[in-house]
Amino acid sequence: MRKNTLVRSAQLFLLLGLATIASIATAQNLDPTRFEDTILGFETEDAKSAPNEGAILLTGSSSIARWNDQAEAALAPLSVIPRGFGGSVMGDVLHYLDRVALTYKPRAILIYEGDNDTWYKLSEEKIVGQFEEIVAQVHELLPETRVYVLSVKPSVARESVWPAAQQVSASLHAIAESDPLVHFIDVASPFLKADGTVMTDIFVEDGLHLNDKGNAIWGRAIKAGLMEIEGQFE
């Protein structure tokens, strides 16, 4: 019995070690040009049917990207332009900011990042610093445009980096508290049970991406965060 337990423990440590190595290796190869084809795809869509200016631009990693085709219905009557690109980190949004967001001259930009960033062991200072650069560019080029930033959501698959994700969220929240054009939306709390652990029935099999129930909760939290200010423009 003890032998089996030791074997299972060894296997678990091996898997965790491999996951850590993989995440670090991925972090060292985060060349933003890996998304060039995706951004070109958005630009091809725009050439066929250009979105209206003055909408709310949604961008960020897979939780936004996998929601691209559901966002308009979930956030109605708000006018939105979904431009999420899965697997991205805050630095990718910064790199493509002009093409994925500013070009649309939106009245507001909503960003979800930090999920992959913390999993790849990127530092809080780097993630938050890149967000501050994004905000600075928006303020300079679109001085009336508001920026909404979502907290990092919890997940079963990334429980090990949840403390780091919470710290990043706290820092993003602090930026919003100090800037009247930046707003923080908490999408983490709605996914937590009373004991503070994450709900387990809101994900697809990978334990990371949201299923229909998760997306419904996600959509309600985002809409509630946007409507107070953005609803007056519809």
Structural write-up:
- The protein is α/β, with parallel strands linked by helices and about 230 residues long.
- The protein folds into two domains: about 1-30; about 30-234, Rossmann fold (3-Layer(aba) Sandwich).
- Helices cover about 50% and strands about 10% of the residues.
- The chain has ten helices and five strands.
- Helix 8 runs parallel beside helix 9.
- The longest helix has 26 residues, at about 1-25.
- It comes from SAR86 cluster bacterium.
CATH topology of the largest domain: Rossmann fold
Per DSSP E runs of 2 or more residues, the count of β-strands stands at 5
By CATH, the architecture of the largest domain is named 3-Layer(aba) Sandwich
Spatial separation of the terminal alpha carbons:
65 Å
Helix content: 40-55%
CATH superfamily of the largest domain: SGNH hydrolase
The largest β sheet comes out as:
5 strands, parallel
- Which class best fits the helix and strand makeup? alpha/beta
Q: What strand order characterises the main sheet?
A: 2-1-3-4-5
In the predicted model, the low-confidence regions spanning at least 5 consecutive residues are: 3-25
- The overall number of domains is 2
What is the subunit arrangement here? single chain
At the first level of CATH, the class of the largest domain is Alpha Beta
How many helices? The count is: 10
**Average predicted local confidence, pLDDT:** 90
Organism: SAR86 cluster bacterium
Domain SGNH hydrolase-type esterase: 62-217
Pfam family, one: Lipase_GDSL_2
GO molecular function: phosphatidylcholine lysophospholipase activity
